[in-house]
Amino acid sequence: MKGFLVLKDGSRYEGELFGALFSRVGEVVFNTSMTGYQEVLTDPSYFGQIVVMTYPLIGNYGVHPDDEQSERPMVRGMIVREKVDDYSHWRGNESLDAYMTRHGIIGISGIDTRALTRKLRSQGTLPGIIVSEVSDLDEAQALLAGYDIKGYVDEVTTKKPYVIKPKKASGLRAAVMDFGIKRGILKSLVARGVELHVFPARATAEEILSCSPDGILLSNGPGDPSELGEIVEVVKSLIGKKPIFGICLGHQILTHAFGGKTEKLVYGHRGGNHPVKDLIHNHIVITAQNHGYVTVASSLDASQIEITHINVNDGSVEGMRHKHLPVFSVQYHPEASPGPRDSDLLFDQFVTMMKEAK
Ligand SMILES: NC(=O)CC[C@H](N)C(=O)O
């Protein structure tokens, strides 16, 4: 069935619809990963966004429940050059199209994703909507004009606290503040024998400390970190009490808790091939990324906070640590899911920090 991607700037792209016919406005962002479309679909940090995959063939290996990063797809739509129905992989048990249909997610194929990505790179990310009828275009434009992104963390965080016990326990326990956590992060810690006590994003410091954690993990998540004032206050009160490791939104919340600022990038970093310089070990790691906001380097108090990682492409902040306390964070995704595992060691670093503090 014919359909259209309509962007807020009035441009439209014609293609073929797939998935479910459920049109919703979202921020159109692009991801440069060659594989991992199912992890991207289900990553809660993409909540409220429509993702363009720049790799031209999507769906080749089908989908599999083990690749999900949360219990359902979180994106509002997917834009591809060529959708593959005839998938082939020993793990694949459903086509991408059937999976998206089952979960109520709209997709559009046959789009010139190179032209679209070049537009987003030069103009910045834009709200967009995928619709089926030409007659819907005026209505689409009205929806796009009124689009606003707010309150996404509350939509994706766990409603109740829960505990994950590892098969081989190391005796360590971490509290996790869930702002929209990816399963890959939970799995990386559980694989190291860490018992996890996962808390809703709005948990109080007392609630978090009541599980007697050896460390606190601040998760990834969707939306603008500067909207999360109350959560920042909770994190501020936890600094110095336990070792803390922040990932992506967790790193941005920590930035605010340190008195720093974040700002929006023009088109963000999303993909599995972003080079980052580790300034402590003086080497480059290839990283998985998914973020639209970034720490403003000059906003950090250099007497307290050290920048540990920078992005090789644009020089932006990719990691930091406290100079005197066991607190560190990265803007990228050490758990990959999808992407390279170069930074897996950061989980070992967190484990060592918790052992030392115990
Ligand atoms: N993956 C994340 O945690 C994303 C953080 C934040 N929502 C951003 O886009 O920058």
Outline the structure in words.
This is Carbamoyl phosphate synthase small chain. It holds the Pfam family GATase. Keywords: Amino-acid biosynthesis, Arginine biosynthesis, ATP-binding, Glutamine amidotransferase, Ligase, Nucleotide-binding, Pyrimidine biosynthesis. It catalyses: hydrogencarbonate + L-glutamine + 2 ATP + H2O = carbamoyl phosphate + L-glutamate + 2 ADP + phosphate + 2 H(+); L-glutamine + H2O = L-glutamate + NH4(+). L-glutamine binds at residues 45, 221, 223, 249, 252, 290, 292-293. The chain has 358 residues and is α/β, with parallel strands linked by helices. It folds into two domains: 2-149, Glucose Oxidase, domain 1, CATH 3.50.30; 153-357, Class I glutamine amidotransferase (GATase) domain (Rossmann fold). It has helices at 37-42, 96-102, 113-123, 137-145, 152-156, 183-190, 205-209, 229-238, 249-257, 345-357, and strands at 2-7, 12-19, 26-31, 49-53, 57-58, 77-79, 82-83, 106-109, 126-131, 162-164, 172-178, 194-200, 215-218, 244-247, 262-278, 283-295, 305-311, 317-322, 327-330. A ten-stranded mixed beta sheet has the order 10-12-11-13-14-19-18-17-15-16, sandwiched between helices. Strand 15 (262-278) and strand 16 (283-295) form a beta hairpin. The radius of gyration is 20 Å and the shape is globular. It starts with a strand and ends with a helix.
